[in-house]
Amino acid sequence: xxxxxxxxxxxxxxxxxxxxxxxxxxxxxxxxxxxxxxxxxxxxxxxxxxxxxxxxxxxxxxxxxxxxxxxxxxxxxxxxxxxxxxxxxxxxxxxxxxxxxxxxxxxxxxxxxxxxxxxxxxxxxxxxxxxxxxxxxxxxxxxxxxxxxxxxxxxxxxxxxxxxxxxxxxxxxxxxxxxxxxxxxxxxxxxxxxxxxxxxxxxxxxxxxxxxxxxxxxxx
Length: 220
What we know:
With 220 residues, the chain is of the alpha/beta class. It is built from 4 helices and 10 strands.
C-alpha cells in the first residue's frame, strides 16, 4: 500500500472546531476536535469502491463485515460499489455479505486479547474475500482474523480499513485499501465507539477527557 492510497492526517493537524459542524447536543462537551468530517469520509469511500471494483476484474466479492464498528463503513462502501457496478457493464462485480464480530477494546485501550465471535459459520471457501474493518491499530485483531479466514481456504483475501492508526502497529500490518492514516489518538464517531457510545456521531472526532470520564466503565 503506497502513500498515494490513503489520506494522511498529520500529527500536528488541529482539526475542526465542533461548533463549526453539526454534532449531536449530547456529545458537545465530550469531543476535542473533528478530524475527518462526514463529507470527506464519503468522498474517500467512493474512491475506495472504484479501486475495489477495478481490482476485482468482474469476479464475485464476498464481503466480510467486522461488527460492530465496521457496519457503517461496510454499508456505505457496498452502496458505492453497487453504484460503480451500475455505471460500468464491463468489470461489474457481484457482492455477497458475511458478518463476524470481534472485541478487543475496554475503555480507550486495547485489552490485549482478541475475541472472535460468530466466525464459525463463515462461508468463504474458494471465495474472493474482502474484509471490511473500521480501524487498524496494533494489527493484532486483523492478524488473528486473517489466520482464521485462511483456515477456511478462501481463494483470495483483501482488507479495506477506513482508518489506519500511525505508530501503534505491533505487526507492521497494512491493509490493501485504506481511507485515512491518523495520529495515535483515540477517535470516535462514524460507528467507532467508546464503550458503545458515539456510534451515532457522523464525523470522526477525538474524544476529550470529559467524554472519557463520563462514558468509562469500571473494571473489576
